[in-house]
Amino acid sequence: MTISKKKAHIRIRPEKIIVAHRNPDFDAFSATVGAKLLFPDHIIVHSGEGSNNLQEFMTIYEEKFPFYMEKEVDFSDVYEVVVCDTSIPERLGKKIQTIFKNPDIKITIYDHHPVDSSRIFPNQTGKKVSLEEIGSSSTLIVEELQRKNIKIKVEESTLLAIGIYEDTGNFLFSSTTPRDMRACAYLLEKKANIDVISAFVKTEMTPDQLKLMKELEENIITKVINKVEIQISTSEIEGFVGGLNLITSKIWLSKGFETFISVVKMGEKTYIVGRTLSPDVNLGELMGKLRGGGHKRAAACKMVDVTLEEALEILNRELTKFVSAAVKASDIMSYPVKTLLAKMQIKRAHKIMNLTGYGGIPIIEDNKLVGIVVRRDVQKAMDHGLGSNPVKSIMSTNLVVVDWDDSVELVKQKMIENGVGRIPVIRNGILAGLITRTDILREVYHHEKRYALLVNEESKFYNVKDLMLKNLSLDLFRFMESLGDVAEQTGYKIFIVGGFVRDLLLGYDNLDIDIVVEGNAIEFTEKLKAYKSITAEVHNKFLTSKVFFTKEKIEIDFATARTEYYEYPGALPNIDQSHLKKDLYRRDFTINAMAIALNTGSFGRLIDYFGSRKDIESGKIKILYNTSFIDDPTRILRGIRYEQRYDFSLEERTMEHLGKALENEYLEKISGGRIRYELNRILEEENRVDMLKRLGELNVIKHLFPQTYYTHLLSQKLERSFSSLKWFEMFYAGSYTICRFYCLLYILCEYYTQDQLDRVKDTYGIPKKTINELYHISKTVEILAKLFTEEMPFSDIYSTIEGLSPEGYCYLAAYLDETGITHLKEYLRTRKRVKLYATNGKRLIREFGIEPGEKIKEIIKHIVKKKLDGLLTTPEEEEVYLQQFVKKNYLGK
User: Parallel, antiparallel, or unpaired: how do β-strands 43-46 and 16-20 relate?
Assistant: First the structure.
């Protein structure tokens, strides 16, 4: 696919052309469009595929920027060429390169890539070269447009700005100059559309950058200075590759290094770039000493006429002067530590926490540290009336600890990675102290020049705007931007939350949009009416509204950011207005506890307070707090559904609390309606049988249907039944909607007594007719199955099972082999085709004098059986046979 989808299959013979390197990016393409303003009698010619975001841009703006592809042009008459974003002929399209066999071709070059002058179109005698080491070729074009006071349209200024933004990495690449910024400022004055710019600017790395990044990743070494770890990597390349600061940052962030320094020799110059989170490393002063600059966390310098080895030696020598001794865990920990015994009752722990104000206390058993309990879990347990239970029943055993000699930076890192606010300190295997966020803050404040990463919420924010633009339709993307604009103008903060965010990161389609409002969602809905055409359904009790946008035909649920509390296990929650973080904390699993900001200025910001993205990357289903399954036991079913849908696994602590919730029979406290809802959600999934199997493995089925024993044989029946379900649903489409829940019940409850089935009926709201059919068919199902496996005549089958529900047929399929299934399907197709032309009750009464009742049913059934066996195929045959059959068997008797 080329950057144009429109070009006709023609060949033109221009005399003057504008070109750029093969496979143009935004800077190359925008430079050619700008050059067209400088050289209006030239035509633009491109070769190869454009970058992904350029292709997306051209699907919308193609008509605004006409050009030709290389294959559409005959270059025989060309005598003048403008070359943009390259000064080396080898980077042009192959056909374009042939032009320069003629040394008299007049050539004008606009490029910002440093290159040896001997390589700049060496065969050409008449060349004008504008080659300067700045951030973007488009900058050179804009400067000339500005000097000549040439008028620029809005769409042209927007495109040129995108080129500058992208090639400077949003002005973050080290190659960025004040000239690039001034050029972009000029374009913004010319009404460049910042919304379009933000939608299409990306910082994709070039092949050269990716190659350099790979080499640096392979050459990393670790130095330890004053107990502070520092990673350093080196590389040597022939030419200049821009964006070393971006490459360094990407390696630093992806590897999770505390301090990372890149040393790269490019030609005659050596560049050193560093990034750090450590308060013990001062990169700004280090690079200043090396005649560079920057600040404490990020800095760089450039050396000339030194070898890579010499540059590395200088760096190592100076580095030791700017690394202070690391502060250790033992220096900042609190001690002695208040502890609780594992067998202590929760109500006693609750009282101690209220008296002391402690937010978390370590738990001791047999003189060993076995866990930690936090205030929120103690309070929830008290709310549920569990005060007499031992504190060990709600403690977290997934302990995160540090050693006495570990650095404070390691403590910070562990707190962030594990989402905990307090960490026990161990010395020789014994609990020696406790470090809390307060201890970290105190230490950071004491060293006021240090950076308080731990309390910087930015560490929990990422931007997924590009991902949204890639995975959503442009209309939906723009619609979300417009909602953010409304929120900004009306003083609210709004966020997309839940499954939409999760599935966006996982690459799944999900248009079920839920938005949380910081403020009052109902009031925000009212404000929306001034900006959008909507209808709204308001729920004051839950502070929510369901809004339908009539123009966009989109339905969105708006909810007030809220916190919940449960009066007893399994109860529906009580709602209090809150803020986003508490709203996310109330959710079922970490993978569902993320949000995306929609307000202008922060649009696309992924908010992840609880390490949710990390859990998605590692494939973990994890609860947010220890009493989660007590608050809402239906989360057990939901967790298993997510686990099987995404091929994840339930995290160890989550499994532990799931088991405890089942053991204490919290699932039994839930209404049958809520259980049925969750099971229906499972039955809607493609891999529903895997989910049901997992429910069986974890003994969940036993708690939902106490008389059911999940066995391998039962699993096979489910497999056979549900593998045929799609065919049954298609067969009955338009005339009957199969209830998948009933299909499940027929198998799970096939051995139940009548009394047991009546309890199932009352619990799950099942019609008595369905329960009666289940009871009777389960007694004869094996005999009925033989009708199909032995391929009995359709008339015999009809006599036996006529009137069976579609769910009954699904149940029957669980006992059939492939031959039986085929015969069953053919029977149903044949039965569906049977139509009575001459036979009906009214006629039998009127013309033949048959009394209403069983005799009429017998006659109709007899005719149907004949038709099923193919003995009566036409209306005439049916009429003749009916006359003979009735006279012989029913008249005169």
Answer: parallel
Q: In this structure, are residues 878 and 863 in contact, taking their beta carbons and an 8 Å threshold?
A: yes
> Cα–Cα distance between 682 and 465 in angstroms, integer?
31
Q: 310-322 burial string, b = 16+ CB within 10 Å, else e?
A: ebbebbeeebeeb
**Tokens 């309606």 belong to residue:** 673
Q: CA–CA separation, 710 vs 413, rounded Å?
A: 44
Distance CA 893, CA 441 (A): 104
CB 327 within 8 A of CB 443: yes
Tokens 């619609």, residue located? 479
* Residues whose CB is less than 8 angstroms from the CB of residue 526 and which lie 6 or more positions away in sequence, other chains included: none
Helix (H) or strand (E) holding 726: helix 725-732
User: What is the average pLDDT score of the chain?
Assistant: 86
Digit-coded pLDDT (tens) for 135-186: 899 999 999 999 999 999 999 999 999 999 988 878 876 678 999 999 999 9
Least confident of 126-130, 303-307, 802-806, 879-883: 126-130
* Cα radius of gyration (the chain): 37
pTM: 0.55
Which residue has 């392979």 as its token pair?
Answer: 218
pLDDT at 796: 92
How buried is residue 62: exposed, middle or buried, by Cβ count under 10 Å (0-12/13-18/19+)? middle
Please state, in angstroms and as integers, the Cα–Cα distance from residue 4 to each residue in 16, 54, 60, 82, following that order: 21, 10, 11, 21
Please state the separation of Cα 291 from the chain's center in Å: 44
Distance CA 624, CA 610 (A): 8
DSSP 395-434: -B-S---EETT-BHHHHHHHHHHHT-SEEEEEETTEEEEE
For the chain, the helix, strand and coil percentages under 3-state DSSP, each to the nearest 5: 50, 20, 35
Q: Helix 154-167 to helix 137-147 angle, to the nearest 10 degrees? A: 140
Cα gap 350→361, rounded to integer Å: 11
Q: Count CB neighbours of 431 within 10 A.
A: 19
E strand or H helix at 108, and its extent? strand 106-111
Q: Which residues pair with residue 513 across a beta bridge?
A: 556
Instruction: Report residue 789 as tokens.
Output: 């496996």
Reading the block at residue 21, the tokens are: 């390197």
The torsion region of residue 364 among left (phi > 0), alpha (psi -120 to 50) and beta comes to beta
Answer for the pair 806, 818: CB distance below 8 angstroms, yes or no: no
Q: How confident is the model at residue 615 (pLDDT cuts 50, 70, 90)?
A: very high
Predicted local distance difference test score (pLDDT) of residue 4: 41
Query: Could you please report the per-residue DSSP string of 464-481?
Result: -HHHHHHHS-HHHHHHHH
Per residue in 382-441, pLDDT (tens digit) is 988 899 999 999 998 878 888 888 877 778 878 877 777 788 888 877 788 888 876 776
Q: Which residues contact 772 (CB under 8 A, 6 or more apart)?
A: none
Cβ neighbours around 751 below 10 Å, total: 11
With both helix axes pointing from N to C terminus, report the angle between 725-732 and 806-813 in degrees, rounded to the nearest 10. Answer: 160
pLDDT band (50, 70, 90) for residue 558? very high
Pairing of β 340-341 and β 360-365: parallel
Confidence of residue 455 (pLDDT cuts 50, 70, 90): very low
Preceding amide of 336 cis, omega within 30: yes
d(CA 20, CA 29): 7
Question: Which residues touch 505 (CB under 8 Å, ≥6 apart)?
Answer: 464, 467, 594, 613, 616
Dihedral (Cα; 834, 839, 842, 845), 10-degree rounding: -140
* Contact yes or no for 494/517 (Cβ under 8 A): yes
Q: Indicate if the pLDDT at residue 675 is higher than 90.
A: yes
User: Residue 572: pLDDT above 60?
Assistant: no
Note whether 142 and 122 are within 8 A (CB): no
Show the tokens assigned to 260.
Answer: 């990372």
